[in-house]
Amino acid sequence: MNSHERFLTAFNRKPADRLPVTTHHVMPSFLNQYLNGATNMEFFNRFGLDPIHWVVHHKPDPNRGEFYDPTQKELGFLDAERICTENWQFKTEKIPNRDYHTERFSILTPEKELSMVLQSDDHTTWIAKHLIKNKKDIDIIAKHLPAPKCDVEAINREAEEFGDQGIVRSHICCFDGYGQPGTWQDFACLYGIENLIMATFEDPQWVHTFLKVLYNRKKTYIDSMQGAKFDILELGGGDASTTVISPDIFENFVAAYDKPLIEAAHKAGQRISYHTCGGMMPILENIADMEPDAMETFTPPSMGGDVDLARAKKRIGDRVCMIGGFDQFHYFTGCTPQETRKEVRRCFEVAGEGGGFILSPSDHFFEAEIPLLEAFGDEARNCKYE
Q: What is the count of structural domains for the chain?
């Protein structure tokens, strides 16, 4: 099998020729620090992993007065083109800070300028000040927020060029400036997860009101993906994990909105991988009930998650493809290649039976010893199905 066929076989919960092996994202900082600025494909080829090509392209609807943001000079890591209207425009300004790159990202509306403060280092970006500071801010957002459409032609050009080297992957549209694919996760980025959890108890109707706004925006984007040659798209986020929220909050405020988005994606001919980095065990069946095609990241307790990979396989392995499960903190650094190989083999033995398992680090990694990456890829390629 080629890598594309191997991935698709796993998505269909069948055994491939061997264990599919990949990584969630290849972080630019890792490529620069360890591989002299190698490309993603050079990374995948160097370590013999099954490649993933991430691609995101949005387009405006001129009939709705939409246009591309003229201030967006270049796209960063996994960025999409921002969509403006006369009443929804952007401004960024650098803020002096001796420790981190800091900038204020502002959204200009007729009623008010909304802003968040973002900080970043060589590895990642985070929110220092959230966008929603007053509950009435969601009324302004609801009034003016445009919904991007998928640029199907741009996606398909990249998919054709990539061919069968691996899979073409993307994510459901995120909020402008800083957001994530899941409806709840997007809200958490804008308001702060602690604030949002408290609001589910103090003012649940307000929470539902804005979740519906975010849901409708994502649904519009999903409906526009018909014919796009994605192999799978990401939905969800770590703030939906049970190391952050309770199963009751998950069911009432997360699944209530993300399940119909998965249904819409299926109607548009797309597959969904539901991403929950953190605790999953109390809600494994809840996630599977949303009927995604795959689930990730199956983070083990040694990395702050709670997943017992063998138990997870027994509980939901016949319902979804499982992606992840590998502890990159302890087996990409500070151990021997033999120990890395042993962990690869363990993951295959407890989760690989019958197929439907893709070995991957549990989300990002920023540091790794080259011999351990080599052992990771080589041992996975030796995990063969009869």
A: 1
